[in-house]
Amino acid sequence: MLTSHTIKNFFSGTNKLERLWLMAKIEFKLRYYENNLGLLWALLKPLMDVAIYYMVFKVILKSDIPAFASFLFIGLILWNFFIESTSGTIQILQTKKYLYEYSNMNKLEIYLSTLMSNTIGFFFNLIMFIIFLNFIESDMMGLSLLNFWIVPLFLNLFILSLAMSLILSCIYVVAKDITQIWQVFTSGLFFLSPIFYKLSLFKQALPSFEYANPIAGIIINARRVMMENNLPDLELLVFDFGYAIFLLFVGFILLNKLGAKAAEKL
Amino acid sequence: MEETFAIKARNISKTFHISEDSHNTVKHRLFNLFNPPRTKYVPAVKSMSLEIKKGECIGLLGRNGCGKSTLVKLLAGVYPTDSGYVNIQGSTMLMNLGVGMSHELTARENVYVSGSVLGLKIKEIDAIFDDIISFAELEQFVDTKIKFFSSGMVARLGFSIAVKAGADIMFLDEVFAVGDAKFQEKAVKVFESSWIQGKTVILVSHSMDVIRQYCNRAAFLKNGELKYIGDTGKAIEMYMEDNQ
Questions:
Q1: Pairs across A and B, CB distance < 8 A
Q2: Is the reported ipTM for this assembly greater than 0.85?
Q3: From the CA of B39, how many Å to the nearest CA of chain A?
Q4: Which residue range forms the structural domain that includes residue A47?
Q5: How many domains does chain A have?
Q6: I need a labelling partner for B23 at 20 to 30 A (CA). Which of A79, A259, B151, B165 fits?
Q7: Each residue's pLDDT tens digit, B61-91
Q8: Structural domain boundaries of chain B?
Q9: Fold (CATH) for B2-242
Q10: 3-state secondary structure string, A132-200?
Q11: Does B16 reach chain A within 8 Å, measured CB to CB?
């Protein structure tokens, strides 16, 4: 079996985790420490995004969602993680060619380390969100044990992003157009995800659409556990894990079929 | 028995498809719907089988364009094969003038990333880090990005990493041209002491002296076919004949 071969190859090493962590740290450092403001950007970016959407939807369009800034905040950091891990990695087989061009390194590690680096960024954002929700916009509920549900939800997002990253970057090997196509697709998906809409409006306009859009389900559930003191919608959670695992399977097949040719084609 | 083989390749072949005029845009494709791009097939490696034992030093001989580099990339697991299979035991590293280093990273980061890719633990890299840097004569540039290095400095760093860290199976494609005479002398010395003893080496070279000196076996390639593998002297003879 193609996929089982990839996975078996992957876990049969001793310094793998160490290496992944090393590469993730360097990747993270590369992204932020180059700039004059450094790590501050990782913190400023989501705040500025929140400010823009708050301006548009609260000040101008007079949205009546309570704790709207936090509502946006959690949606945007999840969305940004997805975008950074998919759009940001389409060309990964080209930019990280130096890693596999001269050795028989498993390509999956390149993806995992980049996503781990994004996870570090997400972790900072999540801490900021929790501080923001509890100390600045504190008219909502406080901390609760239900918040820990964010871990499986994030795992779901991680698998989904890894899967899309694999699929897109492998298609990139044979069709460079995927960069543009994915750009259009994600801007559509952005407006079809309940990032700044009231959930009831979203459900009314697009009934059952949250089952078709895996990102929507993750955002809805994240708000339930982080802001609404509620259990996640388990049916939605199962659906989204299903999507993620199915796409991951497709991603592995593509990595074996197309990604393997990256050294000669790119 | 299985354990003593470093690389086992059976019936491997590789054909490159090179399209002469590429239809890169949709418009171009539509206009040329009934005029598909002509594709040239270049059979770089025709069906060959070989086994390389652990600890062996094998020379690869052949004229330009006979498929040496493609064969090396197939055996190193960089290219997938079109047919047959390659069974590789351990990590591989392919060295020609440059090795895999990112120009965006500093010398220090490159040492750690490369060392780790070659299978070392962080602690092991810590232990040999100073050796690598001093061997490459780059003490003053440890935290400089290598995009600011001269090509000689990059090559020396790559060579030092390979010498000190080294993968289980090393593919050396004309590597003795790095650095000045003094560096080369140093390089050859370490090459003899650390690679020839204990590692599996596949050596590609046009220098018969190098091949004769180090290789227990040699393979002679012609037009993508493995003509001979075995005694070094015989392979060199065949290569010399081919050059006539």
A1: 71
A2: no
A3: 15
A4: 14-265
A5: 1
A6: A259
A7: 888 888 888 898 898 888 888 888 898 888 8
A8: 2-242
A9: Rossmann fold (3.40.50)
A10: HHHHHCCCCCCCCHHHHHHHHHHHHHHHHHHHHHHHHHHHHHHCCCHHHHHHHHHHHHHHCCCCCCCHH
A11: yes
